[in-house]
Amino acid sequence: MKRTPHLLAIQSHVVFGHAGNSAAVFPMQRIGINVWPLNTVQFSNHTQYGHWAGEVLAPQQIPALVEGIAAIGELGNCDAVLSGYLGSAAQGRAILSAVAHIKRANPRALYVCDPVMGHPEKGCIVPQEVSDFLLDEAAAVADFLCPNQLELDSFSGRKPESLLDCVAMARALLARGPKAVVVKHLAYPGKPADGFEMLLVTEHETWHLRRPLLAFPRQPVGVGDLTSGLFLSRILLGDDLRSAFEFAASAVHEVLLETQACGSYELELVRAQDRIAHPRVRFEAVRL
Ligand SMILES: Nc1ncnc2c1ncn2[C@@H]1O[C@H](COP(=O)(O)OP(=O)(O)O)[C@@H](O)[C@H]1O
Ligand SMILES: Cc1ncc(COP(=O)(O)O)c(C=O)c1O
Ligand SMILES: [Mg+2]
C-alpha cells in the first residue's frame, strides 16, 4: 500500500472562516495528506474584515513543538514543510531552523514558502519585518516559492511590463535558490480582462495557465493559501510539477464556483470537497 505523505503546515489559524491553515488543512486532508497544522497566529477571523481578536504564537514555540515531534521519533516522517502567513520575523527565523532540523531528519523533505506579504489596500495586514524576512532570508532556503504578483514585484523591486517580463522576474528568483516558482496570480499590462492567470517556472520550463475570472462583490480570502497547499499536496502524492500546478488551479476554481454560487464571502470548502478531490474541468497549462 502506498504511504500517506506527511506535511507540516505552518501558517495562520482563524476561528471563523478560512485563511491560512483554516483554508488549506481540510482540502489537503481531503485529497490524502496527513497534515500537521502548526498555527502561527490564532485570530478570530482573517484580517480583511478590518478588525480581529487573538494572538501571535510565541516564536520559541515553533522549535519547541518540532522538538516534541522529534522526541516521539516522528520527525523523520515529515515529507514537507509549508509556510504561509507569519505573525513576526522571529517566527520566520524559527521556521527556518525547524526546516533545517527536519531536513537533517529527512534529507528529502521539501520546504515550500508562500511569502504572504500583505496587501494594505485589500486589508491583508502583515508586519513590514515579515516582508523583509521573506525577501532577505526565506527565499534562499525554500525549495519552491509561491508568490502572488505583488509579492513577485517586491522580490524584484519593480512591476512587470508584460507576461514575458513576469517570466523573467520569476526566473530571476530561481537564482536565489528555489527550484521552482509558482506565481499564483498574474497581473501585467495587456493581460486579458476576462482571465485569471498563473505561472510555473523552473530552470528548464515555463508553464502558463489561464482560467475564467469570476465576479465577486468582495474578493474571497485564502485563495492563495489553498493554491499553494494543494500544489504541494499533489507533488507529495506523486504528480510532476506541471500536473500539480494544473490540479491546484482546477480544484481552486471549483471552490470559487461554489463560493460564487452560494453568494458567500468565505470559501465554501466543505460544500466543494468532492470537487476539490475530483475537479470536473482540468485547466491545461501551456508551455511558453
Ligand atoms: N477565478 C477567479 N476569479 C476571480 N477572482 C479570483 C479567481 N481566483 C482567485 N481570485 C481572487 O484573486 C485574488 C488572488 O489574490 P492575490 O493577492 O493575488 O493572491 P493571494 O490569494 O495569495 O493573496 C484573491 O482576491 C482571490 O479571491
Ligand atoms: C490571518 C490571515 N492569514 C492568511 C491570509 C492570506 O490569505 P490569501 O490566501 O488570500 O493570501 C490573510 C489575508 O488577509 C489573513 O488575514
Ligand atoms: Mg497570499
Automatic annotation (TrEMBL):
Pathway involvement of the protein, from the record: Cofactor metabolism; pyridoxal 5'-phosphate salvage; pyridoxal 5'-phosphate from pyridoxal: step 1/1
Residues the entry annotates as binding ATP: D114, E151, K184, R211, P212, L213, L214
Q: GO biological process: any one?
A: pyridoxal 5'-phosphate salvage
Work out whether the entry's keyword set contains Magnesium.
yes
Which cofactor(s) are needed, names only? Mg(2+)
| UniProt cross-references to InterPro entries, sorted A to Z | PM/HMP-P_kinase-1, PyrdxlKinase, Pyridoxal_kinase_PdxY, Ribokinase-like
Positions that bind substrate: S12, T47, Q48, D225
In what residue span(s) does the Pyridoxamine kinase/Phosphomethylpyrimidine kinase domain sit? 72-263
Substrates-to-products reaction catalysed = pyridoxal + ATP = pyridoxal 5'-phosphate + ADP + H(+)
| Single annotated GO MF | ATP binding
* EC number of this enzyme: 2.7.1.35
Q: Which GO terms describe its cellular component?
A: cytosol
Q: Work out whether the entry's keyword set contains Metal-binding.
A: no
Alphabetized UniProt keyword annotations = ATP-binding, Kinase, Magnesium, Nucleotide-binding, Transferase
Q: Coiled-coil region(s) at which residues?
A: none
Class in the EC hierarchy, top level: transferase
Q: How does it assemble?
A: Homodimer.
According to its UniProt entry, the function of this protein is described as: Pyridoxal kinase involved in the salvage pathway of pyridoxal 5'-phosphate (PLP). Catalyzes the phosphorylation of pyridoxal to PLP.
NCBIfam families for this protein = PRK05756.1, pyridox_kin
* PANTHER family, per database record: PYRIDOXAL KINASE
Family, similarity comment: Belongs to the pyridoxine kinase family. PdxY subfamily.
Q: What is this protein called?
A: Pyridoxal kinase PdxY
- What organism is listed for this UniProt entry? Pseudomonas graminis
